[in-house]
Amino acid sequence: MRPSTARYIPSHSPSSLLRANSHSPRPPRPSTPNHRRHVTNTIEPAPAGGHLPSVATSSLLRMTREAALRAPGLRWKDEPDALRDRDHEAGEGTDGARETRKMNVYQAVRDAMGIALLKDDSALVFGEDVAFGGVFRCTMNLAEEFGRDRVFNTPLTEQGIAGFGIGLAAMGHTAIAEIQFSDYIYPAFDQLVSEAAKMRYRTGGQYDAGGLTVRAPCMSVGHGGLYHSQSPEGFFLGAAGIKVVIPRSPLQAKGLLLAAIRDPNPVVFLEPKILYRSAIEQVPTSDYELPLSRAEVLLPGDSLTLLSYGTPLYHCETALSLLRSPPPSLAHLIPASLRSAQVELIDLRTILPWDIHTVIKSVEKTRRLVIVHEAGRSGGVGSEIAAEVQKRCFLRLEAPVKRVTGWDTPVPLVFEKFYIPDAVRILDGVLETLMY
Amino acid sequence: MRGDDFGTARLPSSANNGCTVLVHISRSLSPGSAGVRMLRRAPPLHRALRPLPALQHRRPSSSSSPSPTHKPHTPPSAAHGHLPGAPRSSLTPELHFFNSVLEGEQIPTYRVLDANGNVVPGAKVPEVGREFARRLYETMMLLPSVDTVLYSAQRHGSISFYMTTHGEEASVVGSAAALSPTDEVLGQYRELGVLLWRSYPLSLIMSQVFSNADDASTKGRQMPVHFGSPEHHFHTISSPLATQIPQAAGVAYALKRDPARRGDVAVCYFGEGAASEGDFHAGLGMASVLGGPSIFFCRNNGFAISTPASEQYAGDGIAARGPGYGVYTVRVDGNDAWAVYNAVKEARRLALENQKPVLVEAMTYRVGHHSTSDDSYAYRAKQEVEDWKRVDNPLFRLRKYLESQGWWSSDEEQALRTAQRKEVMDAFQKAEKRKKPRLGEMMRDVWAGEEPWMISEQREELRGLLGKYGEAWEPYRKELERFEGGGRDVI
Question: What residue intervals traverse the membrane (chain A) (predicted)?
């Protein structure tokens, strides 16, 4: 047991993160953002990776070409239709010629936008500071490659960026807008909720903003404080007409972003910023998509369903490792009878409209559900899912649906370790639900 | 704005009028003006100073500046005052604050016809023929015909809501007449006149306000007066104010990029109240920096519901903000159809030539109530409204002009009124009898593509409820009768 345990136990050092960065074509840079209103070159605080040492070695990441090409649901978009719709058989056929490349999330996002710009002359990428490559490097060299009329900076106005994108989309163009941090998406809330989401409906289908995709970095980063850490996905739950997508890894980011860009609905695409550099895997270099509104079962199990999306999936993985083989310091807190529990781990991926079928199917089998997200609990995504699950699985449930979430406070700076639903909180939620 | 030694540009006398004056103003403030040339002659103090990257960046955009006197930026010749935020600001030893572009004077209002329909000396009437002029007048007259019928229809409870254009006929129709029929229009809600000018059928106007099965604008989903028609290049109205302003910047950018749309502009209408929204600032900022042919047309009618313009802003109206964004701007007499027509025609030319926005502020007066939900005599004197209707009436003004040309007569006036009223009433009565849309339209068009489970499930839930209570619950039973198919497409 020890070797596999070592893989999951937090090292409390950033070394794993640095290892991950050494694969990057660029010299390592602190994973922290250039906080937008004060871009500095000063020494950054300790890497946020200290909270997430398992990402670099996560089994959720596909480290070989073969594994990447076998990603469930992957659809190549550069093949004739007959070859394309093979869904779960992506490893067959012409895949022998497919290439993959090791990428982190920001490189995968950049790769997706490059393909979108290449294949669609109407596609435009814009936002604050995207022309020089973006404060998270997601648009590196896109302006040089595709021209400043297609990849350009906007004035610093989120409502303007969203409104501008809606105008482009209403004219049938493909608008890929960036909000620098999802914490700053609220000035655009009116444009996204009142205009983009409702345009198709209120115009009787005559106009729509389906060509709009709004990308924004989300979730905590170790030291982002109130306004560089938020997870606003729950606020969009009532915005019928919009889609909200959150990827967990580079391969997911590229496939889901390309699907979002081409989806006939406006999409808010939230990228967990702590994963930009820390999550690295093999990513197919060609054009492919992953389906929206489809959850993915990452680990099969029949004892409990653990549902999350974005960054906390890695905490979930660590929690399951702690459950299976607890370190001596925790062993007395984890009943031996529970260590063999087979937990089913699900990545929700699309928040709106979410994949209720996969979730219900899983809970029908496991009879227990723990939902994990970084956003605060009240009014969060967990509330919505818990309500639907208790309605549909009332007689099957053997424990109350548990929500392990951020607290109902703003995301604090120095207290972040005690705010986020980290591995031990998830472990505790799993134990409580298993023992109920 | 003193300190000639430092070359600060002097503003021209305000004795001139209209849009040309404003072009002069912006040119005199441009780098090619005398003041800046003087600066360039000054010996360079810091030749060694390398231009900042930001300054170099500015070159391509400034070389495409419309000003014929403009020259590419040369390295700063003074040590200070040429920082990237305002690289062409001259230096002055005089501490001088200012709170308006014209230093205490208001921006003049461009006018062609006086209140009696006489051509103002020096003004140029547009070179349009008799038929065009008559059509303009007839369309302006059709607007109050529609308004009067629909306003009283709301009062009688036939429709739920209405907003008239009384008093703003010249602003709306006069501007529409200066546009190409394929220019993309994004309106606020008081721009029905644009659709009328573009021959949008009365039947569809009635269908929309009655929310009947023929409502192509919104399929019965939006409140009355929220019209839209891609065929007429009129983007569907939505209630949130000013949201269309940054959207217009995006539409303009799309037009700029589309070779098939070269020659078309984006036209964005909004009231002076909406201009207080953040989206006005966002939209003008986006449009001016990113470019694309656009006209931002402000209907300054003095009121935002009950709020007078004096409580809306403290500056010189909306026009004064245009130069702040580097946008060509003109203020025009909104009750003068020819002034509005001329201004928008020229605005359109400027927007296309420079691929940049132009701001037009049309000064007018909201004669009608804000909407059918508003009694404006609660906040303004009825006599004031009656006075404006009498002394500054846009319909009267154009009619007098047409008569002076021998293009119109009182007989024709009477015949027009009778014909228009009949046409409107016929369309009204047809639309009134028509059923509401199919009930299933309530849950369509929310998302495109595969229908999400919540929509499918909720339709089933409604189906169950209607199956159970559709007959037994009187409010449902009566309401279902009004829908095409009696709701059976859902039940």
Answer: none
Is residue B188 within 8 A of residue B237, CB to CB? The reply is yes
Of B218, B240, B285, the CB nearest to A160: B285
- Mark yes or no for CB contact B282/A152 under 8 Å: no
pLDDT tens for each residue of B415-445: 999 999 999 999 999 999 999 999 999 999 9
A155 to chain B, closest Cα gap in Å: 6
pTM passes above 0.90: no
DSSP summary character for residue A176: E
Residue B381: CATH number of its domain: 3.40.50.970
Contact across the interface for B285 and A155, Cβ inside 8 Å: yes
pLDDT of residue B103: 81
All structural domains of chain A with their residue ranges: 53-82+98-289, 296-435
Q: Which residue has the tokens 């005052």?
A: B81
Q: Are B179 and B348 in contact (CB under 8 A)?
A: yes
User: What would the pLDDT profile of A290-323 be if each residue is shown by its tens digit?
Assistant: 999 999 999 999 999 999 999 999 999 999 999 9
Residues 292-351 of chain A with CB under 8 A from chain B are: 293
Confirm or reject contact between B224 and chain A (CB < 8 A): no
Measured CA to CA, the distance from residue A306 to residue A322 in angstroms comes to 14
The CATH architecture assigned to A296-435 reads 3-Layer(aba) Sandwich (3.40)
Of B215, B240, B282, the CB nearest to A157: B282
Residue B471 has pLDDT above 90, yes or no: yes
Written as one string, the DSSP assignment of A214-281 is EEEEES--SS-GGGSS--GGGGGTT-TT-EEE--SSHHHHHHHHHHHHHSSS-EEEEEETTHHHH-EE
Chain B residues whose beta carbon lies within 8 Å of the beta carbon of residue A208: 448
Residue B344 falls inside a structural domain:
yes
Q: CA of B291: which chain A residue's CA is closest?
A: A149
Chain B CB contacts of A293 under 8 Å are: 450, 452
Least CA distance to A154: which residue of chain B?
B286
Q: Which of residues 107-136 of A touch B (CB under 8 A)?
A: 122, 124
pLDDT reading at B70 higher than 70: no
Domain A53-82+98-289: state its class. Answer: alpha beta
pLDDT tens digit sequence for B236-282:
999 999 999 999 999 999 999 999 999 999 999 999 999 999 999 99
For residues B444 and B428, membership in a common domain is answered with no
Listed in sequence order, the DSSP H helices in B187-228 are: 192-197, 202-210
SS3 category, A217: strand
Q: Is the CB of A166 inside 8 Å of chain B's CB atoms?
A: yes
Number of structural domains (chain B) is 2
pLDDT at A396: 97
Task: Give me chain B's average pLDDT, please.
Answer: 87
B448 and A194 in contact by Cβ < 8 A? no
Tallying the residues shown for chain A, one arrives at 436
Q: Which strands form A350-352's sheet, in the order they lie side by side? A: A151-153, A123-127, A174-178, A212-218, A267-272, A243-245, A350-352
**CB within 8 Å of chain B, chain A residues 261-290:** 263-265
Residues of A forming the active site: 158, 228
Contacting residues for B270 by C-beta, under 8 A, at least 6 apart: B188, B241, B242, B244, B245, B280, B296, B297, B298, B299
CB pairs under 8 A between A and B: 159
Residue A360 is predicted with a pLDDT of 98
Q: Is residue B16 part of a domain?
A: no
Q: Which residue of B has its CA nearest to A388?
A: B454
Q: Which residue of A has its CA nearest to B258?
A: A122
- Residue B87 reports pLDDT greater than 70: yes
What are the residue ranges in chain A where pLDDT is below 50? 1-34, 37-52, 87-92
Q: State residue A301's pLDDT score.
A: 98
- pLDDT of B258 reads 97
Q: Quick one: pLDDT at residue A81? A: 55
Write the pLDDT tens digit of every residue in A51-92.
445 798 999 999 999 999 999 999 999 866 555 555 444 444
The answer to whether A169 faces chain B, any CB pair under 8 Å, is yes
